[in-house]
Write a structure and sequence with these properties.
Length: about 160
């Protein structure tokens, strides 16, 4: 029996983490890795210690901000990066595995954190009905490899 690659293991873990999300709208998971070791994990939802959207607002999700976005939610990438930084991890040269390609604000955070490679399984642009994956375009333009990865993933 062939052993799964670390890429497959980490992307499957991101998919499993997405199942932990309390968001009513989307479930996204992320894993930060360096030298085949997990640095941090995250999934989308409100900051720890606030409301869980699926419990507080099970029908509609959290209230919307002025732009129509979730007023409480942190993206999975943000949660993984913030937890890593909070605990003193060095993210320079790390790899991020995420179930949804990064939005532009997350892409800027990924770039600024020194992450050098991003694997994603689904398109944020397709999810949001946008013409292109701005976050992926930004990362690739500035030297971070951002690429779709779906080989060998568990089916949902």
């Amino acid at each position: 029996m062939a052993k799964p690659s670390f890429d497959v293991i980490f992307m499957n873990l991101a998919a499993d983490l997405a199942l932990r999300s309390h968001c009513v709208k989307a479930h996204v998971g992320a894993v930060l890795v360096k030298d085949t070791r997990i640095i941090s994990i995250g999934y989308n939802g409100p900051p720890s210690g606030t409301h869980n959207c699926d419990e507080e607002w099970p029908e509609t999700g959290c209230p919307r901000d002025a732009r129509g976005s979730c007023s409480l939610a942190l993206h999975a990438e943000e949660n993984a990066i913030l937890y890593a930084v909070k605990n003193g991890a060095n993210l320079q040269g790390a790899t991020l595995y995420t179930t949804l390609s990064p939005c532009l604000p997350c892409a800027r955070l990924i770039f600024s954190a020194g992450i050098k490679h991003v694997f994603y399984s689904k398109s944020y642009a397709a999810y949001k009905g946008l013409p292109s994956d701005e976050g992926v375009d930004f990362l690739n333009h500035f030297g971070v490899i951002a690429e779709r990865f779906d080989a060998g993933l568990k089916t949902e």
